[in-house]
Design goal:
four-stranded antiparallel beta sheet; six-stranded mixed beta sheet
């Protein structure tokens, strides 16, 4: 069975995530122990018990989603289901790099720890926000982002589905403009920062330092990267694109189109939720897509191999 593994990013978390997998698989318990030692906090308690406001904080959200995704993907791989290519949405790109053997689990989590903490700090010093814009054409999107202050497209998720990011007042004014020109929907997102925007610049140097502290291997399979939506296998290029991703938009719709045009049409989203599975339906017409996020999902899929 050949599939492209897709890994979700921030926003897919939920209280109780991965608990059923943790209770059933010894591999999950081992990964949680390693993660707790690296992160220096009880990640299991936050994922399983919350409170939800804590889980939503960037420094906890990012490692939680990554841990959930990697545990599920490794269970599949151990049982013989291997990807032929990988991609991840924002944070999910680190899960993709582990799946493609560019980074080890420990190396990726070390990077995510720094990335999440520094992104949270960047937002504290440069208060920003994000908003979902639904139904806007390219010309309308350009008008929406034509505000005083920083605001620009951050997640190009699917045709007519874009997330904008920037300074709080600029995003507020962009929402007002969207409503004024008759865009179907424009609503602020409950996120803790202006991700994938220039407001993340303060996190660049700390992220570069931790990226330079680990070895980026050449990928065993193509990794479709957020920065340019193209497949990469060269370790040095992958590292460069990961750094650029911090302040650049996620080109998700383009990634899925490129994967499909390269002959792959079977997708498996691995991790909490099914956001990417839903986006695929908006991007492609003829494809196979499923999602794995719970113990039951895993068991059902393994029965088909």
């Amino acid at each position: 069975m050949k599939k492209v593994f897709l890994f979700p990013g921030q926003g897919s978390q939920y209280l109780g995530m991965c608990k059923d997998i943790f209770e059933f698989y010894s591999l999950a318990k081992e990964k949680f122990t390693i993660a707790e030692n690296i992160l220096e906090f009880d990640i299991a308690d936050i994922m399983f018990n919350g409170p939800s406001d804590t889980l939503k904080q960037t420094q906890y959200t990012q490692p939680s989603i990554f841990l959930h995704s990697i545990i599920a993907s490794e269970i599949l791989e151990i049982n013989g289901l291997l990807p032929c290519a990988v991609a991840g949405h924002s944070l999910g790109e680190f899960s993709a790099l582990v799946s493609a053997k560019v980074l080890t689990f420990e190396e990726a989590l070390k990077i995510i720890k720094v990335r999440a903490n520094e992104m949270a700090k960047a937002n504290n010093s440069n208060s920003g926000s994000m908003a979902a814009i639904l139904g806007a054409n390219p010309e309308q999107l350009e008008e929406i982002c034509d505000q005083k202050g920083i605001v620009l497209p951050a997640n190009l998720n699917a045709p007519g589905q874009v997330v904008i990011s920037g300074e709080f007042n600029a995003v507020r004014d962009a929402i007002a403009t969207a409503k004024k020109i008759g865009v179907r929907k424009a609503l602020p997102l409950k996120v803790s920062g202006a991700f994938h925007s220039p407001l993340m610049a303060p996190a660049r140097l700390p992220l570069l330092e931790v990226l330079n502290s680990v070895n980026f291997n050449n990928a065993k399979i193509p990794v479709y990267q957020n920065y340019n939506a193209k497949p990469s296998t060269e370790g040095t290029k992958i590292k460069s694109n990961i750094l650029k991703q911090l302040e650049s938009p996620v080109r998700w719709s383009e990634i899925i189109d490129n994967i499909n045009q390269n002959g792959f049409d079977s997708f498996l989203e691995i991790g909490p939720g099914k956001i990417l599975h839903g986006l695929n339906k908006r991007i492609l017409n003829d494809f196979s897509s499923s999602y794995i996020g719970t113990k039951d999902n895993i068991e059902e899929l393994l029965c088909t191999i």
